[in-house]
Specification:
Blueprint (H helix, E strand, L loop, with lengths): L6 H25 L1 H15 L5 H12 L5 H21 L13 E4 L1 H10 L4 E4 L7 H8 L4 E5 L5 H13 L5 E3 L2 H12 L3 E5 L8 E5 L2 E5 L2 H8 L4 E10 L2 E6 L11 H22 L13 H16 L1
Parallel strand pairs: 1-9, 2-5, 2-8, 3-4, 3-5
Antiparallel strand pairs: 6-7, 8-9
Length: 313
Amino acid sequence: MSEKRQPWVQDLLWRLEAFGFDLFIGAVRLMGVDRASDFGGWLGKTFGPMSGAHKVAARNLKLAFPDKEPAWHARILAEQWEGLGRSFAEFPLMDKILPSTGRVEVVGKARLEQIARERIPVVFVSGHLSNWEVMPAAIVDSGVVCEMTYRAANNPYVDKRIKDSRFRYGVRLFAPKGGDGARELLEGMKEGRSVALMNDQKFNSGVAAPFFGHDARTAPGPTRLAIRFGTVLQPMSVQRLKGARFRAIVHDPIVPLKTGDRTADIEAGVRMINAFMEDRIRERPAEWFWVHRRWPNEVYAALAERERVASAS
């Protein structure tokens, strides 16, 4: 059994990691938006297929699009790696990728302006589409006061740098994922602030709702908040146009059901969000974050068994 690191050793390793992070941020910002995005795209499509995550993405595509030809799957995998590489290189430059800089076209801007003007708290929902940081950037750039959930980095020095980077493009209200974050979101909505959450990741204790023909455990938190505060789920999506230029789309609100059966209403809201996400992914499949295990283990096991039988026949 390995011994636990001494606090000073762990702190030194964290500081060294943060120094490397600073070098990366500095290099990317010196490149400028377009060159950094192109470089990130090259890194992604060159090295992404060598990673273990490539197998995860390939399995996910087979589950979501079982009827597509192998050549189609290969093309989507290559495109998603390039887009993912671009997105990671663009994150340190998000203060230069805003609607106000001319790099983001906002479809449905009037809806954001209405939310900002009337101070109506809503629950923004989206997923890891294209460069997903464009969504919070578009929200705050429009003047909406909004709390964003985030998963804190294990390294506290890196976590501070990530927060500082987001502060540069206007994201100033953070709610960490977990119990403390949930309480902050509740307090924020009580005070009239909107909240924004990604709702496309696996959530083991969540609602089992259809997603590409397989039940996927999905967090009920966004729907629960909307029902509790009598507001709407406000979906948004992001599309990459060319290079580091984007389109942020404000879709029609999703109005949660109010039948009196709160559990059933929450489940219905989750199903509507999953359906929204599936529609967006079908429109532009190369732009979703395919490299995480979205479905339960038994779904992947069934896929492996089908492939074993097919290869043996």
